[in-house]
Amino acid sequence: MAEQGVAQVWRRIRSMYRIEGNKCVTCDTHFFPPRPVCPECRRKGNLENYTFKGLGSIYTFSIVRQAPDDFKRQMPYVIAQIELDEGTRLTAQIVNIDPEDVEIGMRVRACFRKIKEFGHGGIIVYGYKFEPTMKVTGHE
Amino acid sequence: MSNRVAIAGVGMSKFGELWDKNLRDITLEAGMYTIFDAGVPGSDIDGMVIGNMSAGRFTGQEHLGAQAVDLSGLGDIPAYSVEAACASGGAAVRHAYMSIKSGEHDVMLVLGSEKMSDVNQTEAMNTISVASDWEWEGMFGATFPALYAFMARRHMMEYGTTEEHLALPTVKNHANAVHNEFAQFQRAVPIEVVMKSALLADPLRVLHSSPVTDGAAGLVICREDLVKKYTDAPIYIESSEQRTDTLALHDRKSITTFNSVVSSTKSALKGAGLELKDIDVLELHDSFSIGEIMLTEDVGIAKKGEGGKALEEGITEIGGKFPVNTSGGLKARGHPIGATGVAQIVELVLQLRGDADKRQVDGAEKGLAVNLGGTGATSIVHIVGR
């Protein structure tokens, strides 16, 4: 299927590996993934690349207990919307915590993980997941 | 009001897991019932439009417009296929409405159809997931139920919605479907069973979710001045509106309200010259029970945050002030994706004609349907009246 193509993942690597998005200088809004047009300013917009710090808090979440084959081995896993400190939200898994302990508002930071494999012998997709911030990393 | 669009007839196939029927069988079945109900000679139909989300993935077949016209022997009339995820059916109705309004067509057959049970549950769920933002939600493990679970959890936190509230749309809609011979599940479900059903994506459970369904539904619509030829009981499309929101749920300021629904409903009511209190019966897109709770608020039946309470008070039951999903809704009538938006209109027409049998809302004159695509990126609202 088209959504399991190598190029489809490869061309998004900068965003998926480094949380690279962009920001509109005109209205000071951050976008992730990068938007080709600022939906507020449109032609008056001025977009420049921006790499997110990878820190934020959990806006909402769910524990997935029925998943596609690509994710079956990870079940049950926590999927969440994370509100990044720059103000934009994204969707990612929460790891390194018991699913039952996850709460809205919890501080999290990005980590680099394997997301899934495209079936047996298929390519491996890497990208961001999020984990609770810890004192030792200086993020709390 | 001489430029109105009329509905001459409606029809649908049985909804369910129809192992002995393929996509073309159910599409033809709905089309035939519709044409017979309308009493329209095939030669009067000058265009056909079909709503379908993903036949290519569910069955391997695309180009459904040509297929439907070919099968039904409607000659060489233009055949259009439209797609707007779970709102494909509503999009087909609106496409035909605009075609008649513009004067391009006079009498059209509108169909909605989906054959989902030829793939396994996992593949069906994957296919539904592409109605949201596949690259930035689905790719990271957000299943479609998980996205609605995101809304449910915020709604519970922001407004105190409870697990009991989440179960109420299912209980009500199953009770309504008992009296709908076309429904997938013609049986009641007690609240305890809903609340103990398996978790799909916390806090949403299997019985909060619409099923995998095969089915098709149809309408014949035409210019107002032509409809008297076909029926003594025409129903009119009083207004048709459509709005768009961000494809990804995480890009919205609030995920406990569907802005696309709020604005399309307001415009539709204004366009029809009506207020919500004039509406007698509604079909609201309950792909998940939290969806019906939020829609109950977003169309204005309940204040924001009080959708669950409205259900508790029975306001949306048959006999209540605003009966919602008398057909059984997506949950119990079934949700063959591309057919749903058309089937909603079928139900409203039956209600307005007084043909809804034991689920009849007495004296219903105006009906409103909300058909949602994805997690609310598309909202299509139709108001029908007699």
Name the descriptors.
heterodimer; A: 140 residues; mainly beta; OB fold (Dihydrolipoamide Acetyltransferase, E2P); 2 domains; five-stranded antiparallel sheet; three-stranded antiparallel sheet; 8 strands; B: 386 residues; alpha/beta; Peroxisomal Thiolase, Chain A, domain 1; 14 helices; globular
Would you write up a description of this structure?
The complex is a heterodimer of chains A (140) and B (386). The relative contact order of chain A is 0.18. Chain A is globular. Chain A is mainly β and 140 residues long. Chain A folds into two domains: 101 residues, OB fold (Dihydrolipoamide Acetyltransferase, E2P) (Beta Barrel), CATH 2.40.50; 33 residues. Helices cover 8% and strands 41% of the residues of chain A. Chain B has 386 residues and is an alpha/beta fold. Chain B has two domains: 138 residues, Peroxisomal Thiolase, Chain A, domain 1, CATH 3.40.47; 226 residues, Thiolase/Chalcone synthase (Peroxisomal Thiolase, Chain A, domain 1, 3-Layer(aba) Sandwich), CATH 3.40.47. Chain B is built from 14 helices and eleven strands. A nine-stranded mixed β-sheet of chain B has the order 3-2-4-7-1-8-11-10-9, sandwiched between helices. Chain B has a two-stranded antiparallel ribbon with strand order 5-6. In chain B, strand 5 and strand 6 form a beta hairpin. The longest helix of chain B has 17 residues. The two termini of chain B are 13 Å apart. The mean pLDDT of chain B is 97. Classes of the chains: A mainly beta (140), B alpha/beta (386). Chains A and B meet through strand 4, strand 5 and strand 6 of A and helix 5, helix 6 and strand 5 of B.
Strand content of chain B: 15-25%
H/E series of chain A: HHEEEEEEEE
**Strand order within the widest sheet of chain B?**
3-2-4-7-1-8-11-10-9
- Corresponding CATH superfamily of the largest domain in chain B: Thiolase/Chalcone synthase
Total helical segments of chain B: 14
Please tell me the total number of domains of chain B. Answer: 2
Q: Largest sheet of chain B, if any?
A: 9 strands, mixed
Q: Report strand order across the widest sheet of chain A.
A: 6-5-4-7-8
Largest interface (CB within 8 Å) is between:
A-B, 31 and 35 residues
Determine the mean pLDDT of chain B.
97
Q: Major beta sheet of chain A, specifics?
A: 5 strands, antiparallel
> In CATH, what is the class of the largest domain in chain B?
Alpha Beta
What form of chain B results from the Cα inertia axes?
globular
Just name the CATH architecture of the largest domain in chain A: Beta Barrel
**SS content category of chain A:** mainly beta
Q: How much β-strand is present in the residues of chain A? A: 35-45%
Task: Give the beta-strand count of chain A.
Answer: 8
State the total count of DSSP E strands of chain B: 11
State the helix count of chain A.
2
